[in-house]
Every structure is written in C-alpha cells, then in structure tokens.
Amino acid sequence: MGTRLSAKSIQKLLSGRMGDRAAFLTGPRSQDLTVRLQQKEDLLAAVGALINDLGMGLAIIVATDERREADGDFKVRYIFEPASPLKGPLADLFVTLRVSLDPGNPRVPSITSLVPAANWHEREMRDMLGIDPEGHPDPRSLVLHDGWPPGLYPLRKDFDPKMRPEKLSAVEFPHLMIEGEGVMEIPVGPIHAGIIEPGHFRFSSVGETVLHLDARLFYAHRGLEKRAEGLPLDEAFYLAERLCGACSVANALAFSEAVEQIAGVTVPPRAQCLRTLALELERLYNHVGDIGAICAGVGYHWGTSAGARLKEELQRENERLTGNRFLRGMVFPGGVRYDFTAQQMAAVSTITATLGKQLEELMTSFSYNSSVMDRMDCTGTLSAQIAKDLGVTGVTARASGIDRDARRDHPHAGYAMPGAVLPQVVTKSSGDVQSRVKVRVAEAFESIRLLQLLAKKLPPGPFFLPLPEVLPPWRIGLSAVESPRGASIHWLRTDGNGCVDRYHVRSASYANWPAVPYAALNAIIPDFPLVNKSFELCYACCDR
Amino acid sequence: MDQTLTRWILPLIQVVLLVLLGPLVTGLIQKMKARLQCRRGAGILQPYRDLLKLLRKGTVQSDTSGSFFRVVPVLVLGATCAAATLVPVFFAPVTAGHAALLPLGDALLLAGWFALARFLTAIAALDAGGAFGGMGASREMTVATLVEPALILVIFSVAIVAGTTDLRVIAGHPVGMRGSFGAADLLALFAMLILLLAETGRIPVDNPDTHLELTMLHEGMLLEHSGPGFGCLVLAHHIKQIVLIAFVQALFFPWKAANTNPQALVMGLGAFILGTLALSVFLAIVESTYAKLRFFNLPQFLSISLLSSFLAVALRLL
After folding, report:
1. Alpha helices of B175-226 — where are they, by DSSP H?
2. Is B296 an 8 Å CB contact of chain A?
C-alpha cells in the first residue's frame, strides 16, 4: 500500500482476483480506470479488494436506466477514490466498478456492510430507480416521502416528470426509536423556528442525554437530476449552479469541468485562475459566515454580529465583482463570463487584507473568551474512524484528522495548473466543534493568502473558450471540486444528441449528513444546534 | 389624607410604574446590546409595539391542551403584578413601621409569587404536549431549585440587620440606609447579581434572543402560546425583570423617599432611575461579552451564588 496508487497497479490487483470476468478500460478521465464486471456477484470481492487491500474510499454511486440503449439494462457504477494513507497527498484517480443488471428484476448485492458510506447511495438508488440493493441493512425509503405510490421510480426513463402521482394515505415513517423507562422522544422540524431549510430530527433521549438521533431529510427534493435529463448542457448548467446557494461556484465549476471533459477542451489559464479566485471568494464568505453562526450557536452575541457583518461585506464585494452576491454567473462551461480589470483585482487585494485584520480581531476576542471556548471543547466529537467509514469530506473530515482536500487530491481550476499555489491543508485531530471551527478559521486565512497571491499575478490571455455547438454523444464526465463544505462530485453522461442523459451529484453535504447523528451522540440536547452548525451542512444540495 | 397617600396612592403609583416601565427596561437593554455589537438595533419602544401586536393577534391552541392552558397567562401576569406590589420603587417611609403599610406581604412572599408564576408556566407548557415545552419546563425547574434557596438566603442576609423581611420596611429602615458596605453586603450583592441573570433568563443561563428551540429554557415554555395569552406572558416577564431590578435596589441601594415631601419623592425616583440604568447596563454588558454556559455547567455557576449568599448570612450571624 506504500506506493502511490495508479490505474495500472489497481488493474493488476483486480485482474489477479477476477481473471477474465472483468474488462478493464481507461476512463472517464485519462488517468482513471473503469472495470466492467461481467457478474454482479463479483462486486463484493472487487469492492473488498479496493477498500481493504488498497485503502480506497467510496466517492459516488451512480445508477442509470439504460433499458432503451443497446445494452438494454440497468447499470450501476461504483466510483472509488484513494482514501489512504490518512496523511495526503493522494493520487488523483477514480476507479469505476460497473455492473449490469437485469432490466426486468434489477438487483445488486448491497455493499453497505462493507462500505458504510454506501448507505444513502444505495437507498437513493432503490427509491429513485427501483434497483434493489440486496442485503441492505436499512429497508426504509430515503428520498421519497410518505404517500408516494410504491413501484413508481422517478429516475427511470419511462417516468414522465410532468406526471403528478396521486398522494396515498401515509403511514408514519418508521423512525428508529429507543424504548425504555425515562426515554423520551423529541421530534424537531421539518419546520423550524429560524429561517432555515426543512429537515426532521427525531431524538431519543434520557434527560438531556442523546441516545439516538434519526435525521430525515429530502424535504427539499426538487428533482433537479430528472429535470436535467434531455436538456442541452448549457441549459442544464443553470440547474447545477442552483443546486444550492452557498456552493454556487463549486457546483457550477464541477459541472463545467465535467462538460469540458466531455467536450475534450482545456480551459485557458486566465480562466482557470479566475475560477480559483471565485472559488476562494466563495469559501471565504462561507467560512466567515459559519464562524459567526457558531457564535450564535453558543449564544455569543458579539461574535454573531461581527461574523454577520464581515460576511455581508464580503457578499457586497462579490456583488461588485460579479453582479451577484453568491458569485453566480461567473463560472461557465468553457471558462468564465467576465474578465476582472486590474482595478477589480486591486479591490480583491484590499478587501481581503482588511478582512484578514478584522477576522484576526474577531478570533482574538473569540479565543480569549473562555466561556466561548468551553462550549466548543469536546462537544460533538466525531472520531476519525467514523469519519473515514462514512466517507466524510471537507472541513468535517479534516477536523477529525483526515488529511484530504479535493483542491490538492483532485486538482481542479487553477490548482491543476503547473506551478500553481496549492492551499496548505489544515487538519486537527480531536474532531470536536472546536476543531471544526479552528480548521475553518485556518482555511479562511489560507483563502485570503491564496486570493492575494492570485490577485497579484493573473496569467494573461483569453478567459473563455467556446465549446463545440454539439457535444459528443455517450460520453461521461466526472469531476470533484472542493466546495466550502467539502468535495462536491458531479457525474455527467451525454445522450445520443449530446444532451444530458444522466446527471448525478454527490454534494459534500450528502456525504457529511450521515455523520451528524454520530457527533450528536457525544453531546447533550441543548448542544445539538451547535454541533449541527459546526458541520454547517446544506439541505438543498443534499436533497437536490 | 396623609394616611391615604402613604397607604394607598403612592404604593399604587409604584405598582403602575413597574408595570408600565417593565417593557421599557427590556427595550433599553436590547438597544444597549445592539450598540455593543455595533448594530443600530430596534428602538427602545419595540417591546411595547410587540405587545400591542400580540394583543391584536388571534390565538392558536394545541389540541391536547385544556381550558386551563388559556387561563394560565392571565394567572401568571396576575402573580407577577402581585409580586410588584411588594417592592418599593421610590417611596419607603422610615418611621412608618408596619402599621403604616398595607399588609401585602414580605420578600418571602415575593419569592413565592415568582415560584407560583413559574409553576403555572411550567404546568401550561406540559399541558400543551409539545416536546419543547416539556424540555423548557424541566430545565426551568432545574434552574429554579438552585435559584430559589439562594434568593431566600440573600433576603435573610439583609433581613437579619433590618429585623424584618418586609422589603418596604427594609428599604426604609435606618440601618438600611447604611453608608458603607460590609463584606456580608458585598457577598449578598454578588449572589444577587448572579440570580438576576438567572431569573431574568439572560446569558450565561438562558438566551432570550435565540430561535433554537432545543437550547431554550424560559422561551421553550412559551412556544405553544400565541396572541394575547403570549402577550400576557411576555409582559409578565418584562415586569418580573423590573421587579427584580427594584428588588436589588431595595435590598442594597435603598435611597428612597422617607416622607411625602415632593423633593424627597423626586430624589427617590431619580435614584431608582439611576439604579435601574446601572443594572440594565450590567445585564447588557454581561449578555454581550459572554457565551451561554453549557446546561450541565449551570449548577456550578448558580452554586457560586448559593455559596456566597450562605456566607453572607453566616457573616451576619457570627
């Protein structure tokens, strides 16, 4: 395991185990490996080899309905990425295991007991495509909520998205509950007192101690993946950019990179750097806002106001730079929409320098305030083992000691350019709220540093490269972008007309949500909002 | 005539003043907090506007709650107003003694009225059947078990000197007008300031500005109330706050008018206004500079108050 993983070494290992029951191809990207398993029974052995022998982790599972195509089947692609050693950097590599399923009775062995991170992916695949992960430990639905007619699978190609299914009378969702003397059940949401997104949390508790938390999401499911199907890529782009508000740039960039892979174009260096700039601006305003939100979680009013003020200043700067507070409309397949003038670059320099000073002031009053630090210390601990098993990403993973950052491990935008300045990946080991805050603070300062470097020297040249009118058919694009919440992975496949055949996103929040109940176990009920805020997950891009 | 004035008119004016000014003190504290956080904040009259808004609204009631639930806000408001009759605001006749005063009750009854109001609020919260009400009630009661003994000890530490537990007499007692503060006074005042934070539901004990239901203490119990009933409970909380502020002043800074001389009355009122401002500044500063404590650390924090009030009593007796 000591040597760096490569497609070749993985192929060697797998072909040793599978013999001729597996076909090996290169793709979707030139360094990646796709393994076509001829028998779905081999799946567990192949996954076991990747996970146990090579220390890889699950990136995304994509199920497709290809019954109308030449193969006439359902396909499931299990995509893995290097996850070990815990200390990076890791090889930029995706390994796709592809299985073909019977179109009449699609079943596939569940890998959840081998890879806990697959839990939600497999349940989503069961809900949306009717592909049964045999042996999955959790029989409950994930995406589809009470009253949805059974046997109706929205992501199958024969499902008409314009259809309005009849709402059946609903049985109450079987939440996992704990029974016993003095055990109370506390339902929270889906409608909350604050203006936040919908999600239902069911606590089982004794007194103030949390015994179990069952979180139910997908109230914000908008069917974006279904809507994208059949759309030309430049139109589907707007859906991708609007997956959620806070990660607009990251999602727009991930989609754009997938499209560019399919088109086979390389974006000019100036556009790459402007994309990085937008990405770091997004990370900065998110992290600063999150630090303020943490203060609200502990009831530290001064910090809440200061955080909100700094975030507002950054968002106003975003609007001055790109015309949008969320930096929407900047990144586009082929490059970026606007070039920044020297004056604008100077403005970025100035505002980030000022913000750096103000953030330092905030952090001083923050870290010398023992009442604030005490609330965060050892609260909501997420162990490295659980974080690794669940494939947690982003700030949450790094705060639990997992040294992973898609900016370094799956270089994109300007980070992929030769001689690019890479961010220093900050990790903490204790995995509590304090670690997550500290990682965020360090990353905010790191973003300021990167922004200042980028603003100083932007490579000259064009900032846009027109894509071909019609994109090649039946191609796959796969990209991972480090959003403020972690790696957002987009998988895109074109149909015969070069439009979207299937688009699937594993947002960072999707990967991290399953970890929240585990962190809540190490907190008391009144601390849960704080723990939740320290993850700062998004419902919209998880639910899609 | 003079008898009517001291027995009826001035006490009545004092109660009305407390009820009317209660929301203003909250508005003032909110404004100061906003300024301390570099915000502009709402006007100091905002609590009055909120109350008017609530009084005009309709009421929505949980299906599981009975008619008792609807009565509770009025009862709580009544109990709090009754407590307000027991604290002197600007007038405390020195020579009057018990005879000159209406037999309304003493400081222990004040603690009793607050306990009753708290009990009723908690019962109503449980009646509504919501999880947050139950959690809020359970937490509020946990805090109450620590706050009430300390409050009684603070009262005793001063009552020992004054020879009575009637606040109007304590505030008017010649010994009460002591020029210098002893160690016992300081300890009792320190204990009382902690109690003031706890009883007014402020940081570090409770967070009045939060929307996070899971963290709430006092607010959690009020979640199921709406419209005029909710308005009554909010008003009761405003009144409780100003009564406690008046209570602190009656015990430790009793600069009250000793007779009906208009000049003395104005001085007494001025002293009350200054004292209220000072305590409001204290509350605003604490609330802006500290985070809320972990719930399980509250007993530790409140036991400081219990300990120092106990020491204050011990010093008096020794």
Report:
1. 183-199, 218-222
2. yes
Could you tell me the CA-to-CA distances from A345 to A137, A278, A452, A464 in Å, in that order?
Answer: 53, 12, 9, 18
Spell out which chain A residues touch chain B, with contact meaning CB-CB distance below 8 angstroms. 184-188, 192-194, 207-208, 295-302, 304-306, 309, 369, 371-372, 374-375, 379, 524-529
Taking CA–CA distances from B214, the nearest residue in chain A reads: A526
Which residue of chain B comes nearest to A206, CA vs CA?
Answer: B135
* Model confidence pLDDT, tens digit, residues A203-258: 888 888 888 888 888 988 888 999 999 899 888 999 999 988 889 999 999 999 99
Give the three-state DSSP class for B88: coil
Asked if residue A89 has a cis previous peptide bond (ω within 30° of 0), the answer is yes
Structure tokens at B101: 């005063």
Query: Domains of chain A (ranges plus CATH)?
Result: 9-15+23-134 (3.30.460.80), 224-461+476-543 (1.10.645.10)
Contacts of A188 in chain B (CB under 8 A): 131, 213-214
Cα B99 to Cα B308: distance, rounded to the nearest angstrom? 34
Contact predicate B167/B99, CB 8 Å: no
* Distance in Å, alpha carbon of B66 to nearest chain A alpha carbon: 22
Q: Which of A185, A301, A309 sits opposite B288 (nearest CB)?
A: A301
Instruction: Identify the H or E element spanning A206.
Output: strand A200-206
Q: Max Cα separation, chain B?
A: 58
ipTM value > 0.85: no
Order of strands across the sheet that contains A33-37:
A22-26, A33-37, A95-101, A73-82, A56-66
CA dihedral B214, B217, B220, B225 (to 10 degrees): -170
pTM for the full model? 0.87
Structural domain that includes position B111: 2-317
Which candidate from A299, A306, A529 shows the least CB-CB separation from B214?
Answer: A529
**pLDDT for A337-386, tens place per residue?**
888 888 888 888 898 999 999 989 888 888 888 888 888 888 888 998 89
CB contact under 8 A, B37 and A208: no
Q: How many domains does chain B have?
A: 1
Structure tokens at A122: 């497999």
- For residue A358 the two structure tokens come to 């103000």
Residue B215: name the closest of B142, B139, B106 by CA: B139
Residues 6+ apart with CB under 8 A from B237: B201, B218
Output b/e per residue, A248-278; b: 16+ Cβ within 10 A: bbbbbbbbbbbbbbbbebebbbbbbbbbbbb
Distance to chain A for B98, nearest Cα, Å: 45
